[in-house]
Model the fold of this input.
Amino acid sequence: MKKHSITIAGGGSTFTPGIVLMLLDNLEKLPIDQIKFFDKDKERQQTIAGACRIILNEKAPDIRFTETTDPEEAFTDIDFVMAHIRSGKYAMREQDEKIPLKHGVVGQETCGPGGMAYGMRSIGDVLQLVDYMETYSPDAWFLNYSNPAAIVAEATRKLRPEAKILNICDMPIGIEELMASAIGLESRKEMEVDYYGLNHFGWWTGIRDKEGNDLLPRIREHVARFGYVTEDQSLQHADESWNNTFAKAKDVQALDPSTVPNTYLKYYLYPDYEVAHSNPEKTRANEVMEGRESFVFGECGKIIENGTAVDSALHIDEHASYIVDLARAIAYNTKERMLLIVENNGAIKNFEPTAMVEVPCLVGSNGPEPLVQGEIPRFQKGLMEQQVAVEKLVVEAWSEKSYQKLWQALTLSRIVPSAQIAKDILEDLQKANKGYWPELS
Ligand code: NAD
Ligand code: G6P
Ligand code: MN
Done:
C-alpha cells in the first residue's frame, strides 16, 4: 500500500496529539510516510510538536516528521491536509460567547452571533490554507473540520468551487456512539443511518443494523426519556455542560418525535432556556481552557521534560478515527458511507440546490456521492431555510465586506430577537474582531 503524507493544519490544536495517536493506531489501514505540522503560532505549536516528535520516535520511527510555520514547506509533496484551525484562538472564542450573552442572547462557538463572528474570522484563513495546498500539492485533498463548518463549507463552495475539499463534523459521530451505547451495541459502526440537515442542525430519520432491522424506535424511546444521556461515562464529551446538552436533546426531540435530533438544535429551539442557564462570566471557552487545553499542554510539557511518552496520560482520540475512514475512502476508493457537508443539488428534494447540507454520502476516490434523502417536512424545511439564509448572508458579508449583510444575517437568526439587538451585538463584535474581520462598510 502507498504510504501517505499528511499536513495537520493547526498543529498547535488541543486535538492534535489525540489525532496523531489515532493515526499511529491505524497504520495498517492508512500507512504514513510523513506528518507535517503547520500553525501560525510557533510557540503554541512547539509544545504539541515537541511531544508528538517523541511519541513518533517511540512508536513509529520510520515516519518523517516536520513542524513549520512556512507554508511552502508545510504544503509541498503531500496527499492530505487535515485542517482544524481556530482563527483567533480561545481568546476570541471567549468573546464570541460572552458578547452575545451580554445582550441576553445565546453565546455559542458555532451557533447564532458567536458562530457568525467566528465565521467572519475563519473564512479567509481556511481559504488561504486551501490555496497553499492547491499551489504546492495540487493533487492533494483538504479534509476540513475547522469551525464554524457550516459557514466555512458555504465559503469553500462559493469561493473555491473546484477545490478538492471535504467538510466534516464529528457531532453526529459522537451522538451515534451514544445511541449505540444506549441500545447495547458495541459500536456506531453497527448502524447505518439516514440523516438530513445543515451542519449542527439536523435530524436522523432512519437507523438500521447491518441486517436492515429498524433500530430507530428503540433509540427514539431512549431519547424521549433520557436524551442522549447513557450510563457509559467513558464516551467523549464527559464534561457537565455536555451532559446537560445531551439531556436537553429530550426536549428538542419532543418537537418531532418521529426523528431524533442533533444536539445543537437546542440553541435554536430553546434559546431563552440556554441564556437562563449560562453564566456570562464563565462560558464553555473558560471550561475548555481550564480543562482540555491545560491538560493537553501540561501532558505535552511533561513528555518533553521527561524525554519520553511512556507514562503519558494522553490518549488516542478513538472517535477521531472517522478522519482515517475519510482519508482511506479517498485513497482506496472504499465507498464508505459517511455524513458529510456537501452541496445539496437535489439530495433534499424540496430544498435549495446550492445549500450546503449534511447528508449521508458514499465516499470514493472522486469524492462524495450524496445519497438522496427525499422530501423533508415543513417544520424542518422552515427552520433550515432561515438558517441557510443566515449562513449564506455571512459568506456574502465577508466577500463583499458588507456591514448591511452581516446585520441582516444577525437579524435573520432565530436566536436573535430583534434588528436592534442584532445591531447592538454587531457593533460589539465588530470592535472585538478588529484585525480579524475584513473592514466592513
Ligand atoms: P486550538 O486553539 O487548540 O487549536 C487551533 C490551532 O489553530 C491553534 O494552535 C492556532 O494557533 C492555529 N491557527 C489559528 N489560525 C491559524 C491559521 N490561519 N493557520 C494555521 N494555524 C492557525 O483549538 P481546538 O479547540 O483544538 O479546535 C481546533 C478546531 O477544530 C476549531 O475550529 C474547532 O472548532 C474545530 N473542531 C471541529 C470539530 C467538528 O466537528 N468539525 C470537532 C472538534 C473541533
Ligand atoms: C463537537 C462539535 C464541534 C465542536 C466541539 C466543541 O464536537 O461537533 O464542532 O467544535 O463539539 O467542543 P468543545 O469541547 O471545544 O466545547
Ligand atoms: Mn461540529
